[in-house]
Amino acid sequence: MKILVFVNHVPDTETKVKVSADGKTIDPAGVNYMLNPYDEIAVEEGLKLREKSSGEVVVVSLGTDANKETLRKALAMGCDKAVVLKDSSPRDSFGVARALADYAKEYSPDIILCGKQSIDYDDAQVGGLVAEMLGLPSISVVVNLDVTDGAIVAEREIEGGHEIVHSRLPAVIIAQKGLNQPRYPSLKGIMDAKRKQIEERVVSAIKPRVEVLAMKKPSAKPPGKIVGTDASAIPELVRLLHEEAKII
Ligand SMILES: Cc1cc2nc3c(=O)[nH]c(=O)nc-3n(C[C@H](O)[C@H](O)[C@H](O)COP(=O)(O)OP(=O)(O)OC[C@H]3O[C@@H](n4cnc5c(N)ncnc54)[C@H](O)[C@@H]3O)c2cc1C
User: Which residue range forms the structural domain that includes residue 69?
Assistant: First the structure.
């Protein structure tokens, strides 16, 4: 089975992200990056599928040389091959999906796995766009997956419950938290990953359809208020929660 997984290189959740001087992008200075957590789940699912049916898992990431760090993590988990699609011109979700879909078209996988969303820009668009560009079915927020003889049975997380859907390969599967517990890379995996070549491809720029006008951090929260330190403060606390915070 040819398994293709899209992985994004995103700021570490512990990083205090700053907006660049242009007021439109994230300032990369001092930011630690990581494999997008939803993509780690997609990688794990790809590895599980390979273990069940043999074949290969290829990981691809669009960005710069810096994305290789994330690709190496995926290789260390056990992926067979990694590809960086190189471009640093401005891209929106359509532009990101276009480059990934073009690669997928050429590779012609049996299944594409990606994350529900990147935890940097949170667009949650790329998986569905790629499926549409390739004319493939897409199944989103997948929390359980079975693929047997080309038939897919997937469980989706929906408000207040789960939905079971059927489809057939090839398809795009969009991973949600809970689908699996990603493995830790083994020491051997880490050492092997250091030796593996990462294929590089330069992709051409594409005019964005959506332009970011401004990016700003949320305004600072107002300081907390202490209304008292004993039981006599309760009526005032209840009044404030009811009239000001409007949460009771
Ligand atoms: C080359 C490049 C240039 C960009 N330029 C700008 C810019 O100028 N201004 C700006 O504000 N933003 C820019 N971005 C950010 C870009 O607009 C968003 O990454 C894009 O809209 C996708 O949204 P998202 O990252 O929230 O992905 P989502 O749609 O939330 O991601 C869903 C899934 O798609 C896959 N995926 C997403 N991105 C990638 C990727 N790069 N490689 C592999 N898989 C991926 C992952 O599996 C992910 O879990 C740029 C990104 C790239 C890669």
Answer: 2-202
